[in-house]
Amino acid sequence: MNNKELKQEIQQQLEQKNKTGQNSQEQSVLDGQDDTQSVESQQSSYVDYEDILRQSEFVPIRTLGRGTFGSVYEVYDREYGIVAVKIIQKEKFDVRELEAAEIIHKETRYCPFIMDHKQQKPNKNYQILISEYSNTNTLNLFAKQPQISLPSYILRTLMNQILEGMRVFHETGLVHRDIKCDNILLYCPPGTGRVYAKISDFGFAKKVDQIHEQTYAKGTLPFMSPEQFHKSSLITQKV
Asked: 20 lies in which domain range?
């Protein structure tokens, strides 16, 4: 319902209430004001992320995911071509995700089994991260559909790729802490017939710390390592 229709409906309610007396009319006016304020509040909280991306010289193609404080889009960028862009409110963004992505990008050679962080775009109110685009799905596509049986050699190949990605990840001194099927993206280079498993989402990543105990566990149940639930838990590559 648009604002014009809403005002018409409120006006009709007022006219109807007017027949029952002045008190009910006044109450109807108050109700109408509350309804209008509610609609205006919803409109003011809406954020057109695609418009923000266009202002940052991206061409939005489609939405890949939505969250409370941001979204992920497939976009076209003049420098990188087709990429994935995460846009999120700055005050809700965990800077550790960016720090981990930059560490991996700078300290390792390109690894085909880790999502490559390209760049961040400056914006006053939003954090905009550009990363490699995964054109297939996540490993969860198969995990949630047991009727899709993969040959054992494909499973071995995917597992080898994930383990190699973890090895390179650990070379930087980082611990991921949230390895799960949803964070393993699948990428098929056009025309190759190959599929690569890529580790993504570095929001919980942290440097190995053999001295300080972590104050609380990080990750997603039931995929968290048992080491995180120990009374004295250090940040090691086991977690």
From this structure: 3-34
